[in-house]
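Z., the sequence and structure:
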Amino acid sequence: MADGLSIREVAEQTGLAPGTIRMWEQRHGFPSPRRTASGYRRYDPDDVATLRRARAHRQRGLSVSAALERARETGGASDHPSIYAAVAASDHGARPQVLRKSTLVALSRAIEHELLARAAAPVLFAAFQRERFYRALEPRYRRLARHADAATVFADFPVLRRPSGAPVEVPIAEGAALANEWAVIVDAPGYAACLLAWEQPGAIEPEGPQDGERRFEAIWTIDPRATRRAAQAAARLAGNADAEYGDRLAELLADRPLAMEQPAPALTALTNRLLAYVEAAGGR
């Protein structure tokens, strides 16, 4: 319709009942439709996209208020998209879990080391929040980059850098959703895995005595389609900093087959590595 979508049309396009849409509007302030002269609600296409993302977040277990907030923060064409939200809003077959930082470290190591054991020519992305977190692991990521078709790391770097024999360093813009996220993404023809998380607000000081107890809402999966979605979101982020590099990443991802191997062996190997690292951490 020229003056916007009716609530019935929005319901049909989002799978939400009209009563649910009205309830969210009244209780949570979204959507906020225009009104015609006769008092009918009229919605924009952006409202439909946001409601679809919110519905997906609800199906992953978020509260209505949290789902709406996340959906509005991470709109599809945002200049600073959230990698976590790109996968959380898709059918990835995994529910978000609240995990300690120490568990994320163990799972990240398992994914990284499984990459070295299994993956040929991966496209690799990782998000570290702070540059100092990456520098502590830079030797490991230089080794990983030697096996990769492309390797990209995000942190609060001052400038974009392309160091020889190392991942491309992409700055995270101030205020970007990624500044609060953790990511390890491996997209290879024979192996796909991704760990995505966002840090929950809390009083624990990073790198303080209780650093390992910091809490993150996390998704991890070896689903190749979900991993590809995460990789594509990361490539778009890299393209915001360097359009030519972003185009190269997009071409690499477009040309490579999905990792369609039967998931059971990969999951078994990855889980065994994870358990070993968790056990080692607990013994210290």
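Strands lie at 34-35, 41-42, 97-100, 123-127, 150-155, 168-171, 181-188, 191-199, 215-221. The chain has a mean pLDDT of 82.

Let me know what you think.
H.
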